Amino acid sequence: QGENKVSDTGMGRYAGAQAKVLEKVTREGGVISIFDERWNARSLNEAEFEPGEKVVIRKNENLIMFVEKEK
Predict the structure, then answer these.
(1) Would you write out the chain's pLDDT as a tens digit for each of its 71 residues?
(2) Which residues have C-beta within 8 Å of that of residue 59, sequence separation ≥ 6?
(3) pTM (2 d.p.)
């Protein structure tokens, strides 16, 4: 049962999911919305995302979602 710790914590459902930018997201910070929840976010690279843009969550660390442009 303990093979997949990410799913056990519920965080696994976020990886690969699409989110909407609520407050501009940069490498330093920002805010996204996913599943009607607000999350702090950061860009995985130099990209910046404006409110309303769609992004994809690639990973999370300490309750911060790391996102990149939707392909």
Answers:
(1) 444 344 445 677 898 999 999 999 999 999 999 999 999 999 999 999 999 999 999 999 989 999 999 87
(2) 15, 44, 65, 66
(3) 0.82
